[in-house]
Specification:
Largest sheet: 6 strands, antiparallel
Number of strands: 8
Radius of gyration: 19 Å
Structural class: alpha+beta
Helix content: 40-55%
Distance between the termini: 30 Å
Strand order of the largest sheet: 5-4-3-8-7-6
Shape: globular
Oligomer: single chain
CATH topology of the largest domain: Beta-Lactamase
CATH superfamily of the largest domain: GAF domain
Low-confidence stretches: 1-10
Number of helices: 10
CATH class of the largest domain: Alpha Beta
Strand content: 15-25%
Mean pLDDT: 87
């Protein structure tokens, strides 16, 4: 067994992982070194050194003409193997398609990854005006956006208190994310079972979500609807919330029957 060096310490691995996530968030348009350093709060020389090391291992690619970074072939190979165990799109997509058809809004499934949510799959609705806040691959911390809020609300009180005591969401996501405001939205979510994000990230861009549970009855995923404010008036909340809960329950049952890590 090799001794742990400074370059293999958890802090360096964490920084490398943050860079990989930031590159992934850039999608197929690529991300510059300076922008990646800003997004990960790293000094530019440190970010460049780590990015170069990841590229040497095949985890990243850098376009020679633009200098932009993209995910590399090694991640594709690993992802292809991991998809056989973790991909739930085949189970979720029919539910998303039906939810989008019934509501006209865009439907998404996000998964909890530690203290974050990551959007896994989506289905566009028929209504021509859409919210573009939520898209496949985007990540939010728990408590932010409808998926992050509904998952946080379904956690035990001690876990919620621990998370909020260690993180100032208002500092990064705005004054509507203070502990007091989050506590009110958590209470409202627990009362109805579904939550509403009333344009907290982008004005006029609304979302609603319901939690999807695994076999142990733990909140692992979130089913969301997103759209423009005019489509999420208060008089429509009950109807949309009821549909979300019904489809979230159906998806919970379907995923609990699926063999592999998704059921554990």
């Amino acid at each position: 067994m090799q001794p742990m060096t400074a370059e293999s310490s958890p802090s360096v691995l964490g920084r490398a992982a943050s860079l990989l996530r930031a590159v992934a968030a850039g999608g197929d348009i690529g991300v510059s070194t300076s922008e990646l350093a800003r997004r990960t709060d790293l000094a530019r020389p440190t970010a460049h050194r780590l990015l170069s090391s990841l590229a040497e291992e095949g985890f990243l690619d850098r376009d020679a003409s633009s200098g932009l970074w993209f995910l590399g072939p090694e991640l594709f190979l690993m992802g292809s193997l991991a998809a056989e165990r973790y991909d739930i799109a085949d189970v979720a997509r029919p539910v998303l398609r039906e939810l989008a058809r019934e509501t006209g809004e865009s439907a998404f499934l996000s998964a909890r990854r530690g203290n974050e949510t990551v959007c896994l799959v989506g289905e566009e609705g028929s209504f021509p005006l859409r919210s573009h806040v939520l898209h496949v691959g985007i990540r939010f911390p728990l408590g932010v956006a409808s998926a992050g809020l509904v998952l946080l609300a379904h956690l035990p009180d001690r876990d919620i208190e621990d998370w909020l005591s260690r993180n100032d969401l208002a500092a990064q996501w705005g004054a509507r994310h203070t502990r007091e405001e989050l506590a009110q939205r958590i209470a409202a979510t627990r009362e109805t079972g579904w939550c509403v994000n009333p344009g907290l990230l982008v004005e006029g861009s609304w979302g609603m979500a319901a939690a999807v549970f695994d076999r142990r009855d733990e909140p692992r995923w979130a089913l969301s609807l997103t759209g423009v404010e005019s489509r999420f008036r208060a008089e429509r909340h009950d109807a949309l919330g009821t549909l979300l809960l019904r489809h979230a329950h159906e998806l919970s049952l379907a995923l609990s029957r699926r063999p592999g890590p998704a059921t554990r």
